[in-house]
Amino acid sequence: MQSIQASNYPIHFNEKGYEALNLHLKENKYSNLFIIVDTNTNEFCLPKFLPFIETDLTIEIIEFENGEENKNIETCVQIWNVLTELGADRKTLIINLGGGVVTDLGGFVSSTFKRGVAFIHIPTTLLSMVDASVGGKNGVDLGNLKNQIGVINTPNMVLIDTEYLETLPQNEMRSGLAEMLKHGLIYDKAYWEQFLDLKAIDFVDLDELIHRSVAIKNEIVSQDPTEKHIRKSLNFGHTLGHAIESYFLENENKTTLLHGEAIAIGMILESYISLDKELINADEYNLIKTTIKSIFEDVTILDNDIQPILELLIHDKKNEYGTIQFALIEGIGNIKINQSVENELILRAFNDYKS
């Protein structure tokens, strides 16, 4: 597949990615190489990755426990300490091999250690391939609040190898599909329509769908790297989705949701809000709702869950001057940003989701 040129870095695919990586290692005089992994990617992905590396550099592996609950500043401190103890310097290269937690956290660690060292992302989950690896957002959670601490800083390169997906469980694959569906809903109606019959998609199609999803996100981010305007469109489904994800993460009586599972709920809720505001019609809404619900199981949200979820909205990073801002779809394939939504309408959206 053809490489994609982002604003300051290339995104390579499959075999071409390893060729580009080894050329990069040859052409740049790095002092040493650190690979950040979590416990899952250390077991399932690192053994596949290491044989492709052609370098005389000393390679050190830094592992941390997998899971969103470990995407925090405490984990960063531990990794910064290890980097220091093992002699990392300004000429160090860090490769972040893993899903969105690894690339988000690893990018933040790299961007802040000694005021910034070079890093490369190698996403290994569908979600991280189509979302976390593109756009330069790096960061960690603050308690249960998603991505409150971070920087926008681009990697030297992104390498996407879809063979890593063979190690993923089905729920992780579905989680990534949520972001791909979002890209179609906000930007490309024809792309969205390719997902209406998932049974017709084979692995070759998936490679092409991933490439298109990455291209869509890159096209949006390239127009607005610092999220002042059109990049806000990528937040469709995330205003409520992140609040739901945070609430389920902090509540010991709830089963923690994967990112895509929460965003799927958020897209249904925010599509209902789009319907109520007459930005989409009933047929479009019903198609969105039935399509997403055919992929993702319903999640039980009780009446007494909704108020705590609403209270978490105030921490959303898109808020301006204390006002909650939504990105809503205006017909499938188009978006309208900076939309204010009253709580009564959000409540109706939750009631519709549960019905």
Quickly list its features.
about 350 residues, Dehydroquinate synthase-like, alpha domain, Rossmann fold, alpha/beta, 2 domains, globular
What does the model show?
The chain has 355 residues and is of the alpha/beta class. It has two domains: 4-167, 3-Layer(aba) Sandwich (Rossmann fold), CATH 3.40.50.1970; 170-195 and 227-354, Dehydroquinate synthase-like, alpha domain (Up-down Bundle). Helices cover 47% and strands 16% of the residues. The chain contains 14 helices and eleven strands. The protein has helices at 14-27, 39-44, 46-49, 73-85, 100-112, 126-132, 170-187, 189-193, 203-223, 238-250, 259-276, 282-295, 303-312, 343-354; strands at residues 4-5, 10-13, 33-38, 59-64, 93-98, 118-123, 137-142, 145-152, 157-160, 326-329, 335-339. The strands form three sheets. The chain has a seven-stranded mixed β-sheet. A two-stranded antiparallel sheet has the order 7-8. A two-stranded antiparallel sheet has the order 10-11. A hairpin with a 2-residue loop joins strand 7 and strand 8 (145-152). Helix 7 (170-187) runs parallel beside helix 11 (259-276) and helix 10 (238-250) crosses helix 13.
Task: Write a brief caption for the model.
The protein has 355 residues and is of the alpha/beta class. The chain has helices at residues 14-27, 39-44, 46-49, 73-85, 100-112, 126-132, 170-187, 189-193, 203-223, 238-250, 259-276, 282-295, 303-312, 343-354, and strands at residues 4-5, 10-13, 33-38, 59-64, 93-98, 118-123, 137-142, 145-152, 157-160, 326-329, 335-339.
